[in-house]
# Entry
Amino acid sequence: QVALVESGGGLVQAGGSLRLSCAASGRTFSSYSMGWFRQAPGKEREFVAAISWSGDSTYYADSVKGRFTISRDNAKNTLFLQMNSLKSEDTAVYYCARGAGPYDYWGQGTQVTVSS
# Structure
């Protein structure tokens, strides 16, 4: 069984920064790609960023490219999302997920609210 727990969300002014973390249980974290997704009120969940198991490859949604950075620390079983230059449209619940073909395990989410 895998458990993913996000943290680091909160309220921030537009233009500010936040760093999200996702702590994973189990010994297989380093074997899988990982991703961040978000869901804003009244909208469908959308892809934000993904990273390969080694951290060598990263992928971003166009809406966050150049502002967000995904990274991981396999020794600490932790995934990160550094979010800079935040905009009001970044307001959402952010989820981390394990990629095993489809994304098969999800965290409970952390709220990010950007005030304008």
